[in-house]
Amino acid sequence: MSNSTFDKILTTLSTLGPIGKLPAPGTMGSIAAVVTGIWINLQFGLVALVIATVIVVAIGFPMANAHYRVTGQKDAGEVIIDEVGGQWLAMLPIPVAPALTKEYLIWVVVAFALFRLFDIWKPGPIRQAEKLQPYATGVMADDIIAGALAGAVIMVSTPLFGITAY
After folding, report:
1. Nearest by Cα to 45 from 86, 94, 85, 109
2. Which residue has the higher pLDDT, 95 or 82?
């Protein structure tokens, strides 16, 4: 087990501090991701959310590995940085809104529900991704695929409802 200060910092970040210790940490992490994702999108735009998503996914791998080195726990529920990356991926296809409109919030709730559904249910490719090694690969990959699938459903759904922007 690692006692390095850097690994301990990454471990704390991987759990979003105390949020990963709450009951239902995956759901709590997704809620935190939704709130911050809305803020990033409305304050800085979609490109900023794309950049933030790429950064979180990229740093999620070393964070999850550090958590394993510090705690020895594989796929610990308290590691929720993967939820942030997956949830933000699910939110990317939501049509851009200039403000916090009812329509925008409805799609955010849909993105949240779809991501949580895929993350918990783990159909086919998500379950396979969860088994990938080394440790952090499976932790991150299943949520990335769950987020991508949720986002794909939104991409297909919004035009069906005649929605391209708000």
Report:
1. 94
2. 82
pLDDT at 118: 98
Question: What crossing angle do the helices spanning 46-71 and 5-14 adopt, rounded to 10°?
Answer: 120
Please state the domain extents for the chain. 5-160
Q: What tokens appear for 21 in the block?
A: 């210790």
Omega before residue 25 within 30° of 0, cis: no
Q: Which amino acid is at 82?
A: D
Q: Which residues contact 94 (CB under 8 A, 6 or more apart)?
A: 104, 107, 108, 111, 154, 158
Please give the pLDDT value at position 96: 81
Structure tokens that stand for 141 in this block:
């990959």
CA 123 to chain centre: 17
Rg (CA), the chain: 16
Q: Name the strand (E) or helix (H) holding 81.
A: helix 81-91
Mean pLDDT of all residues belonging to the chain: 93
Q: Three-class SS of residue 77?
A: coil
CB neighbourhood size of 31 (10 A): 17
Ordered DSSP codes for 96-131: P-SS--HHHHHHHHHHHHHHHHHHHH--HHHHHHHT
| pLDDT at position 166 over 90 | no
Question: Quick check: pTM over 0.85?
Answer: yes
